[in-house]
Design a protein that fits this description.
- It contains nine helices and ten strands.
- With about 300 residues, the chain is an alpha/beta fold.
- The chain has a single domain, classed as Alpha-Beta Barrel (TIM Barrel), CATH 3.20.20.370.
- Strands 1, 2, 3, 4, 5, 6, 7, 8, 9 and 10 form a ten-stranded mixed sheet that branches.
- Strand 5, helix 7 and strand 6 form a beta-alpha-beta unit.
- The N and C termini lie far apart (about 145 Å).
- About 35% of the residues are buried.
Length: about 300
């Protein structure tokens, strides 16, 4: 009986040992499986990007008012060498008010002033301009087309006038503007289309030693042909600048100066409006930086011979 109890106790101990071994094996297997899962998760997590430290540039200098005005403008760089290019700037409609004349003279630039023959301050303005060493020309009123509804003033030359009437009125025009070196057309979209009338004007001016500049208020102007017929020193307007932005005015003048015949500086015309004066105040120093000189109108005219080709 004692032998049977011993065998039973041995079987129990064997089962306990077996179960302990199984538990140990399960524990080891679970541990190894968990480690493999952790390794797998590590491989699936993307590597952290290494971002280089950001280099912060130095702050630019504080923007000035001038910088803001120049921002966005396409302005060619100044030329470093080469002979200076020349342009003519004529200011029309002088004679009504002396204040803009003073502002324009203060620019210290050889502008040319076209003075009306019937302005309330015409003679005074001409004397002031001449005293300052600037060139005076007669702003000669010529008949415009009726559809323009413009008022050319009391001294206008009309296509209905006889030759003697044209000469007499032109004489009065020239007397009213002292110191005039020449003349340019005021309005005149109709009158300049009549070559025979323009020949009378050209001959009368030529007898007085004056030149003529066609302001080109009509694309059908015959002023050039009349000048060729008489041999008077002559030129034509290239550009009006009233109402343009500063940068547009500058770029258009630079292009004109680049392509112009050196013997005939391009002719630019403006009026004594506040906006035009402000534009000139800004643009003239920039033109000087680009090596462009403003010269008097008398330096742009020349006799037009039959063999000459029209430049403009």
């Amino acid at each position: 009986m004692g032998r049977r109890r011993g065998r039973k106790k041995g079987k129990v101990l064997a089962w306990i040992a077996f179960l302990a071994a199984v538990a140990a094996i399960v524990a080891i297997a679970f541990f190894l499986h968990s480690e493999r899962q952790r390794d797998t998760r590590r491989e699936q997590v993307p590597a952290r990007k290494v971002v280089p430290s950001k280099v912060v540039p130095k702050a630019p200098p504080a923007e000035t008012g001038k910088d803001r005005r120049e921002a966005g403008r396409t302005v060619p760089k100044p030329e470093a060498h080469g002979s200076p290019k020349r342009i003519v700037i004529i200011i029309d409609d002088i004679g009504h008010d002396l204040a803009p004349v003073r502002e324009l003279l203060a620019l210290k630039t050889p502008l040319t002033f076209a003075v009306l023959p019937d302005g309330a301050r015409s003679a005074q303005a001409a004397a002031m301009i001449h005293k300052d060493g600037r060139e005076v020309i007669l702003h000669l009123p010529l008949e415009p087309r009726s559809e323009t509804k413009a008022n050319p003033g009391t001294m206008v030359l009309l296509t209905s006038m006889k030759d003697d009437e044209i000469r007499d009125r032109l004489e009065r025009n020239t007397r009213n503007v002292p110191y005039a070196r020449g003349a340019n057309s005021h309005m005149g979209s109709l009158f300049t289309e009549h070559q025979e009338k323009m020949v009378i004007v050209m001959k009368t001016l030529q007898e007085k030693g004056l030149f003529f500049i066609d302001s080109r208020t009509s694309s059908r102007s015959r002023a050039g042909e009349a000048a060729r017929q008489t041999g008077i020193p002559f030129a034509k307007r290239d550009l009006f600048i009233d109402g343009n932005r500063d940068d547009e005015t500058l770029n258009r003048i630079l292009r004109l100066a680049e392509t112009a015949d050196p013997a005939q500086p391009p002719i630019i015309i403006g009026h004594p409006y506040p906006g035009t004066i402000r534009t000139l105040q800004h643009v003239l120093p920039l033109l000087r930086r680009h090596g462009i000189l403003v010269v008097s109108a008398s330096e742009a005219v020349r006799p037009v011979g039959n063999s000459d080709r029209a430049r403009r």
